[in-house]
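Two records follow; treat each independently.
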Amino acid sequence: MTGATSDFGAVVIPRLLEDDRIEEVVGISRRHCGIRHAKFRHVRLDIRDPAIEDAFDGCDTVIHLAFVVSEIRDKKLTDDINIGGSINVLESAARASARHLVITSSVNAYGNPGTRDPLDENTFPMGDRNCYHHHGKAMVEHYVEWWQRRHPYAMRITVLRPTYIVGPHFANDGIAAMAGRFLAIPDANSSSFQYLHEDDLATAYHLVVRQPFSGVFNIAPRETTPVRRLAAMHGQVLADLPMKLGQPIADLLFALRLSKYSGDWITAGEPPVDASRFRRHTGWAPTLTSDEAAALMLLHRARPILDATFVPRRAQACETVLRPTTEFIAAQPGVSTPMLRPPEHHQLESPGGATVHVEHHTARRTPSLTVLVVPAPGLHARFYSHLAQDFDDDIDVLIVDQPGTGLSAGPRRAGGPAATARAVERAWRALGRNQLSETIVVMFAIPRGRTWPLYSRPELLTVRGWARTEGRLAALRRSGFAAVHIEADPLTPGTARDALSGILSDRRNATASPADREMSTTPQDWEHNGLCH
């Protein structure tokens, strides 16, 4: 695989390494590669180097990912790498007797076809001479077609044209612009993108490696997301930028080194495409819709979803958005219990078009108690999901994302103590037990003085805390809930787990027989130096 250190490589290589039928993956790049795996071998080479043929020796399949996407100023060098390097990869793979070559193209190879109807693979890739990337992708495809006509039986070649890829491994100027507070784009009323999640991209490449076949294939979700809809999702101010004005301004800013990209990237979205051919050949189907992938892109860039229509609702979409947090928490010391049973996800409608997201960890038998967990300000439900795995089989656990946090729709930092109380009451009425006497609210707070490192990682969906603990606790109690407060760090979950177990033990002790109560622990046994209040 060329381009092993690219964002594409970061998601495709692990998927290939998981396959027991793949004996070895050779990653080629100019930069150091941090992947460590018994089946992975790294070779530092430029794709223009003739020695790349030796790296291909013995490989059944060559996947070509390397391409200059982030703009450099030397366009002659850009074409030499993108076009000349790709030609060298193709011819070297053939000389090394590789049986299959996978070329990574793009839907932008179509250029500007002048229609918003979905394009199939029969549409000629015209490219765009005004954009080095689009032009380069089209020129590589033209050479591949010419070469195949001259060598029809030499090697199977698969050309993949993916749409816009998003996910935790993808960060670029385009994503930053689309997740910004302001965006100027040509033809704003008709421009659109088809957002594809990185997991679905990795699946597509894995299928092509396992089922080698020749041909050109679009890789895209069925739906499109207009830029107007994307802007409405997170409250972005969208301006219609005339192409004739935008390109020279961008070129000037790029020449003055005030911008990272030139007028090459001032385009009216991407041409919509139809991926039916690839679905028929492989059975591939994207796990997220374009709108769900767009919502993930925004949430992972610390942007809110303001329109409740587009907040993640399906369990698979919710779990995909939360996966970086799930993996981060699972790697922390003290998290001994993995999340064996994924929770139910609920989006409860709230006044003003917002929603309250609730993780519902259902009891395995008829519940005797409902525990509503309120995360510490700035955190969200997934930071406390691992605690629910330790609860008894007859306890229902509802972990409530406060307004403006986690997967709840609405402005970040929305509301204060009263909003928290309303969110908890909304969750309890919709999903909890009918009796307040069978319900307890456990509210967490981060220990005072704790230096919190997670706000610099937007993919974890953290928000800087804003609500005072005392106010939230008082608001919950005014609503009639039995509410307790635990000051504990979820990154050292042993303390939180012990304190919570003590509270539940005391709760059960209050309803036990006198004989059983005498043998139970006292509140002093589980106060843990004042962490529980």
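The next record belongs to a different protein.
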Amino acid sequence: MTHIRPRLGPMLAGGVSLAALALALNLAPVRQQVADWMPQNAPGVEKSRVERPEARGDAEAFKSTDLARLREERAPVTQDAVSQTTSEADAPSASAPAPQVAAEPMFDAAPPAPMLLDRSMVPQGGATHLAMPQDQMPPVYQDQGRDRFSEITANPVRQVADDPVSTFSVDVDTASYAFVRSSLNRGVLPPKDAVRIEEMVNYFDYDYPAPDDAGAPFRADLAILPTPWNDATKLLRIGIKGYEIPVGATPHANLVFLIDTSGSMNAPDKLPLLRNAFRLLVGSLKPDDTVSIVTYAGSAGTVLEPTRASDKAAILAALDRLSSGGSTAGAEGIRQAYQLAGSQFDADGVNRVILATDGDFNVGISDPEALKDFVERKRASGVSLSVLGFGRGNYNDELMQALAQNGNGNAAYIDTLGEARKVLVEEAGSTLFTIAKDVKLQLEFNPAAVSDYRLIGYETRQLARSDFNNDKVDAGDIGAGHTVTALYEFTPVGSEGGLVEPLRYQDAKPAAPATAADEFGYLKIRYKLPGEDTSKLIETPVTRSLEAGALEDAPQDARFAAAVAAFGQILRGGQYTGSYSYDDVIALAQGARGADPFNYRGEFVTLVRLAKSAAALEPQRR
């Protein structure tokens, strides 16, 4: 592409029509755009010429060409028009008048390899103007190898005799799965710390029974099945589905879009994708919902005061005016966004800041701990914070997770417009409307039935046993219609080849109470209803009656969740999956795909196939 740029300006300025150039270069997309640019059924075939301004022969001459005359003289192009071009070698000197174009082929009998035009040199989207040449455009931001993720150490195997209780906070984020997909679609394996297994499993919807009453916003759905990668162990699948708010009954939404417009957002998968994502969200809001927009780069400012969603034209115009440039004063933007949300606070509605960024804060407060503390204090005001991540190369996932988890919000990664539609339109209820907050799970294993266990994923959501009953300890929230899935792998007592070798000199396992002889464990769930500060408790035993004798007899959703968990573990190195392979994951997922109206599960199978041939490290850009 670089070898054509010195030639393109002189050729256009010297009298070569853009259409002829596109045809000569055999660029089908460009020819189609040029055809759309021309009037239909124009009579005759004439030379399309542009008078050379000063025959300077460089990009500056191209920039100053009278484009209006070019548009006036455009006409259909035939092969004869292609022959009416001039070569670079025949270009006149700066003092010579512009010559007539010689009737000779543009290329010799053996043309060179096809050349590509810079996209900025041709009309885009049927526009009636030519963009500035590439060397006059602001550079697209590109970075590599600066993505940041919190270090994750897989949950260890715990022996029930020593540590029978497991406690953790729910997690409804899906950012990890989308980032993994983005990596695999680029032909490279994701960094291990980018793979959070619970987020990969929770990316998918599962057909768990939904509650009918908002006062009891969910109930547990349990299943036990053979572990696909270990014949000696079992999987316990815990599923929760949130109460679904009826259509038309959603509360008023007071939303502040906090948008990063710094220089690092100048990339096709950042600010342009971000604008389109918010356009989708605006289209799904109710007319009386409120939208405000705050942007930040070197400084922060309000670009749209609180506006009713019914005035879509004003909101969309504000989005279209956004451009990128400067450094990143993210902390100041967050302060202003909270202030604006507070000015429109609705005690009976949803008050939420939606931060859209690559997370590359470099002005003002940029330390994740300091920002986390600020957001944690602000959540007490009733304003929550959700995060949408964009881009690669300098993506700061560590900061995104800290903000979302402490802001009583969720985190998603937007790599495609389809993902934006999934998060902001199809799952808008679960993204925006909370039906339960501070949701904690605690599972006590029966030492007479289980010898050891491990929780798959949720490493960043672990809680102390005493945190379960402490209503001051923050935990994850669940949105309307959200599904949450957790998987435990455990070894039944008496099973050979479990997760931990038995000890020779320890006392025998204590006997279980007679009333618990049929139980593997006991599950407790604590949650608070929105607007309340005292938690409620759900309890249910984990009985042997839930167990499927064979893997194929297990519920379909449980098998698919196991396939996703296996894939995530393999991407992280397969510490506990043994010889289980990508092909095994594919077979398990295909057999449990079930109803898949949006092809999310089919896409998962494709990603596993891509992982088989993906590179371990992204090639260095030059």
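Discussion point: DSSP finds 18 helices and 16 strands in the chain. How would you locate this feature using only the token line?
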